[in-house]
């Protein structure tokens, strides 16, 4: 079955080449028109017919959600190949056009990640997570000047889940082990491919037309931009001339009546009160027995959030790492024992701290990976979400507060570390085994407290599941 799927994959690649050779317009460029396929497109085809085809074949054998996920991944690689064909025969366009050319790949990446989120109850969730965590590696085409290391970072992001698959199926089903090896080899070979053909970024042709990302011919033109907003309302004027001012004067005069203002109200007899006359409730039409249900008032469109510049600097004794977005491979070296590291509002990034320092604090970070050597004081995780902390050397204390999702990887030298947690959830500590793999142990989130006659005694309860 795997051989058959691999053959089909190679046939699809061949068909793609023929289509590129027969194309003579639509931004294909002279290379496509002359039937020439770029060397790096041919090298990419080998990647598709090799590890990608093997991963697809094994995914079909496993079936279920893994097979469906692999079909999306296959589509993502196909979209990327089309972009490579365009780049091989066209000059690099403007940023706006480049964004439209990258859109198909970006869309499939989002679909791959959304598939995982919609299937959290899947028995193959670790497989889906491994793919979902690493699929952003296909965004290397937009990375410069180091797309290769970016793919390596994304590959490392999947390691946590691929290790889980290996742990669960190592003794049960070797096919899943082969699946992990095939999937990981995709990113390994992609790094080698990038190093050879796109070392500092996607290679565009030096000749040919500038790549175009416009809509196909014959399509409807883009709608015109909306007109300017209406002028602000002038509260001092109204359509009735001076009637606005007159009405306001009358209103103020009535309010100045004080208690006499109620003399103008009409008395309602009991037979017209709905709470004393049930027959009125059965009649059609709206009832005036109470206020209308609450409806949120329309609000003005929120102003776009201000994006602060990223910071990575040494300020006195403090290393400041702030506002980093998608920054993988941040390294803090040349450290001293008296220095501290403070990471604030860093999302989808990785930070490595080399040497021995005093303390590290992660504050308001999301999907941040921290790797450090030695800390003599404390590592604090505060107001964070989905962070991973790996100890390479020693640390006496790790504090986790108001955090949802925290994985702590301990080294053999840090097994005596104290982990203090409060108001946090989804915490796991991973302890190394003799064979180099990790054993995952959840940190209790539920506690039982009883009065023993003299004091309160609190014990951790077993976590269900």
TrEMBL record:
SMART domains registered for this protein in UniProt: CARP (SM00673)
GO biological process, one term: cAMP-mediated signaling
Keyword list, A-Z: Cell membrane, Membrane
Protein location: Cell membrane
Gene3D superfamilies the UniProt entry points to: 2.160.20.70, Adenylate cyclase-associated CAP, N-terminal domain
Compositional bias annotation for Pro residues: 221-233
GO cellular component, one term: cytoplasm
Molecular function GO terms recorded: actin binding; adenylate cyclase binding
Low complexity: compositionally biased ranges: 208-220
Signal peptide: none
Membrane topology note: Peripheral membrane protein
InterPro entries on file: Adenylate_cyclase-assoc_CAP, Adenylate_cyclase-assoc_CAP_C, Adenylate_cyclase-assoc_CAP_N, C-CAP_CF_C-like, CAP/MinC_C, CAP_C_sf, CAP_CS_N, CAP_N
Segments for region (Disordered): 202-248, 263-286
Keyword Cell membrane: yes
C-CAP/cofactor C-like domain boundaries: 309-443
Family statement drawn from the similarity comment of this UniProt entry: Belongs to the CAP family.
PANTHER family: ADENYLYL CYCLASE-ASSOCIATED PROTEIN
Protein name: Adenylyl cyclase-associated protein
Gene name of this polypeptide: LOC109067533
């Amino acid at each position: 079955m795997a051989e058959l799927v691999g053959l089909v994959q190679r046939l699809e690649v061949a068909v793609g080449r023929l289509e590129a050779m027969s194309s003579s317009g639509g931004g294909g460029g002279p290379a496509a028109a002359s039937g020439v396929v770029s060397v790096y497109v041919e090298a990419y085809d080998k990647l598709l017919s090799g590890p990608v085809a093997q991963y697809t074949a094994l995914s079909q054998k496993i079936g279920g959600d893994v097979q469906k996920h692999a079909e999306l991944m296959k589509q993502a690689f196909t979209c990327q190949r089309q972009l490579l064909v365009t780049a091989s025969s066209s000059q690099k366009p403007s940023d706006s056009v480049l964004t439209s050319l990258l859109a198909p790949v970006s869309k499939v990446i989002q679909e791959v990640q959304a598939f995982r989120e919609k299937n959290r109850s899947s028995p193959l969730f670790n497989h889906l997570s491994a793919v979902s965590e690493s699929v952003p590696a296909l965004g290397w085409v937009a990375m410069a000047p180091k797309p290769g290391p970016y793919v390596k970072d994304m590959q490392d992001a999947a390691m946590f889940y691929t290790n889980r698959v290996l742990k669960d199926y190592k003794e049960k089903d070797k096919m899943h082990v082969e699946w992990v090896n095939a999937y990981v080899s995709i990113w390994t070979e992609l790094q080698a491919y990038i190093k050879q053909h796109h070392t500092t970024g996607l290679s565009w042709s030096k000749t040919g037309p500038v790549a175009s990302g416009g809509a196909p011919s014959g399509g409807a033109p883009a709608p015109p931009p909306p007109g300017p907003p209406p002028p602000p309302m002038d509260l001092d004027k109204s359509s009735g001339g001076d009637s606005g001012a007159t009405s306001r004067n009358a209103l103020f005069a009535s309010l100045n009546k004080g208690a006499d203002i109620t003399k103008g109200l009409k008395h309602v007899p009991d037979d017209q009160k709905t709470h004393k006359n049930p027959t009125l409730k059965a009649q059609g039409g709206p009832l005036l027995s109470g206020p209308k249900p609450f409806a949120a008032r329309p609000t003005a469109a929120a102003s776009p959030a201000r994006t602060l510049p990223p910071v990575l600097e040494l300020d006195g004794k403090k290393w400041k790492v702030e506002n980093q977005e998608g920054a993988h491979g941040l390294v803090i070296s040349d450290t001293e024992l008296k220095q501290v590291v403070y990471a604030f509002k860093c999302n989808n990034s990785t930070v490595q701290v080399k040497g021995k320092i005093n303390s590290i604090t992660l504050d308001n970070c999301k999907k941040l990976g921290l790797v450090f050597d030695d800390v003599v004081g404390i590592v604090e995780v505060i107001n964070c979400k989905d962070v991973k902390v790996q100890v390479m050397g020693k640390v006496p204390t790790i504090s986790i507060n108001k955090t949802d999702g925290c994985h702590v990887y301990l080294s053999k030298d840090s097994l005596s570390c104290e982990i203090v947690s409060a108001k946090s959830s989804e915490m796991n500590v991973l302890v190394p085994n003799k064979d180099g793999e990790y054993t995952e142990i959840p940190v209790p989130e539920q506690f039982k407290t009883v009065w023993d006659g003299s004091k309160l005694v609190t014990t951790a309860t077993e976590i269900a599941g």
